[in-house]
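New to this. Help decode both lines:
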Amino acid sequence: MMTEQYEPPERQVYAPKEFISLTGLSRAAVYRGLERGEIPSVRIGGRILIPKDAADRLLTGNAA
């Protein structure tokens, strides 16, 4: 009998800590970029979230 393996849905947002790991940027650089609006983000409650599509554009150099 074959069992299907659960695959979680693809992430649509990153926490700053995840973005730091993904990019290799320093914590200070990421938070400075968030403050300046250079890294697009949304705030929900006390959390800062970086949309995946914005992160992808930044990482591929298409940040327009």
